[in-house]
Amino acid sequence: MEIRGRSVRLTRDYRMTRQVNRGVRDLASNLGLDVQDFPTPGRREGPAPRVVETRMGEPDAAYGDLIDVLRSICRERRMPLGMAAVLTPRKRLEDEVLFELNERGIPAEPGRDGEAGLDHPAVKVLTLQSAKGLEFPIVVAFGIDEGVLPREVEGVPDEERPEHRQRDARTLFVACSRGMRALVVMHGQEAPSPFLEGLSWGK
Fold first, then answer.
1. Distances from the Cα of 143 to the Cαs of 17, 62, 80, 89, 196, in angstroms?
2. pLDDT-derived band of residue 103, with 50, 70 and 90 as boundaries?
3. Are 149 and 172 in contact (CB under 8 A)?
4. What pLDDT sits at residue 82?
5. Helix (H, G, I), strand (E, B), or coil: what is residue 19?
6. How distant is the alpha carbon of residue 144 from its chain centre?
7. Residue 25: which of 45, 48, 9 has the closest Cα?
8. What is the pTM of this model?
9. b/e per residue, 93-114, with b = 16+ CB within 10 A?
10. pLDDT digits (tens, 9 = 90+) for 111-140
11. Distance, CA of 183 to CA of 85 (rounded, Å)
12. Is 159 helix (H, G, I), strand (E, B) or coil?
């Protein structure tokens, strides 16, 4: 069956708020990624993306801060916790976040491959890589630390390291672009990822 018609390229972002759109664009520029075709902001308003420091080496402090962030955003946006996703750079940290949130009375479940829909009353937890193609009203990228992102890959020739770094940069960018209404990146106080250096988000 032959179908002919006109195609229209949509250039305005109707998925993210204006603030998240601009924040993700700033992140892409900061990472050295191409933003030439990045969509222009829509009209939906919301909080500006933030970078939050926590003591990653102290679970009580780190997960207390994470829970405070989740609760405050959900309260501000008038959304249930089931609308939030926590994205981690490693599978091991994903498993830890799932355990610690549930242990502290915050229902959490794996959110890979759309297994848990937004109608499930629990925080979705998955890796940055698993978030590709998904979207969540609230996204918290947790554990974005030096030595974790970009990854320290042993045995890689020096000439290939920029490619690995660029791949990790794009992974962080895509993960952060999954947030529709609010976006927060959390890192350890002493060693934030170099990907966050020079980022003009709020603290």
1. 24, 9, 23, 7, 12
2. very high
3. yes
4. 93
5. helix
6. 10
7. 48
8. 0.89
9. bbebbbebbeeeebebbbbbee
10. 865 555 667 789 999 999 999 999 999 999
11. 10
12. helix
